[in-house]
UniProtKB/TrEMBL annotation:
<dbReference type="Pfam" id="PF08327">
    <property type="entry name" value="AHSA1"/>
</dbReference>
<dbReference type="InterPro" id="IPR013538">
    <property type="entry name" value="ASHA1/2-like_C"/>
</dbReference>
<comment type="similarity">
    <text>Belongs to the AHA1 family.</text>
</comment>
<protein>
    <submittedName>
        <fullName>Uncharacterized conserved protein YndB, AHSA1/START domain</fullName>
    </submittedName>
</protein>
<dbReference type="InterPro" id="IPR023393">
    <property type="entry name" value="START-like_dom_sf"/>
</dbReference>
<feature type="domain" description="Activator of Hsp90 ATPase homologue 1/2-like C-terminal">
    <location>
        <begin position="15"/>
        <end position="138"/>
    </location>
</feature>
Length: 143
């Protein structure tokens, strides 16, 4: 093993109760509506078995069909409405915490940086996806 990966943190506060935030973060029919960083991308496929030992996979693709990739991994620790930890296929780890603030929920993701792209670029990409998630949940309040 080389040096320990740099940890990057992204965070957002969603104006919705924790049960709704948890559900829309994890339900495949919601993941396909928010799990991309910009409007010229989409997530045509998602599967998610959100439990310790469960697996997940989301396909992220450019809408013009020029590029797509699968983002997936295995959950090492899941505490409903509280914590998700998982390992990605490249060995990096991610920790997602959900903080119940009553009528809002703070979602914090801490992930290992990869070596290919600058940390700032990775942070802004993950933050964009998290911001998209916030927008999605807040637009789906009445459901």
């Amino acid at each position: 093993m080389g040096t320990l990966a740099q940890k990057i943190t992204v965070e957002t506060t969603v104006n919705a109760p924790i049960a709704k935030v948890w559900e829309q973060f994890n339900a495949p029919e919601h993941i396909t509506k928010w799990c991309f960083a910009s409007d010229d991308w989409h997530a045509p496929f998602a599967e998610n078995d959100v439990r310790t030992g469960g697996k997940f996979k989301t396909t992220m693709a450019a809408k013009d069909g020029s590029f797509s990739f699968d983002f997936g991994g295995v959950y090492s620790n899941v505490i409903p409405e509280n914590l998700i930890e998982y390992g990605m296929e490249d060995g990096r780890t991610v920790q997602v915490t959900f903080t119940d603030n009553g009528d809002s929920t703070t979602v914090t993701e801490i992930f290992d940086a990869e070596q290919t792209n600058p940390a700032e670029m990775q942070k802004s990409g993950w933050q964009a996806i998290l911001d998209n998630f916030k927008k999605h949940v807040e637009a789906n309040q009445e459901k």
